[in-house]
Amino acid sequence: xxxxxxxxxxxxxxxxxxxxxxxxxxxxxxxxxxxxxxxxxxxxxxxxxxxxxxxxxxxxxxxxxxxxxxxxxxxxxxxxxxxxxxxxxxxxxxxxxxxxxxxxxxxxxxxxxxxxxxxxxxxxxxxxxxxxxxxxxxxxxxxxxxxxxxxxxxxxxxxxxxxxxxxxxxxxxxx
Length: 175
Ligand SMILES: [Zn+2]
Prior knowledge:
The protein is an alpha/beta fold. The protein folds into 2 domains: 119 residues, 3-Layer(aba) Sandwich (Rossmann fold); 41 residues, Rubrerythrin, domain 2, CATH 2.20.28. The protein is 35% helix and 22% strand. It is built from 6 helices and 8 strands. 32% of the residues are buried. Zinc ion binds next to loops.
């Protein structure tokens, strides 16, 4: 570890599904133990094995302090409930690698991951054509009675009129 400025792609399952071509590139890859398990469950063994055999994929457990940083950032953006534990670990790993001097880039199509990466100044790249270009904060509101709510859990309904709550983007910041 500690190669200054070396490019390393921090990958999740969506990265592998979306862009098998990256395996042939000169880049290094890293992921977490829990994401490795998820990749195996999704039948991505071939690509994983190719990466592991070539020494290009490192499996690294993120530090708990970086996980705490990620969770706090996600909560501030209102995105915490859209971020699974493996997602948190992916972002934490990217933070750890950045601190170690790597040019770490998260490779993911997951929108919540991209949004939180933006707010933490973690580099990311979408594996498709449409990466996000804005940091988005979310507000929860009731489409029935237009009341606003500070938070939302999935499936929650408005306590005033019973309409399922929705969320919309507010406070967009151009990147
Ligand atoms: Zn309502």
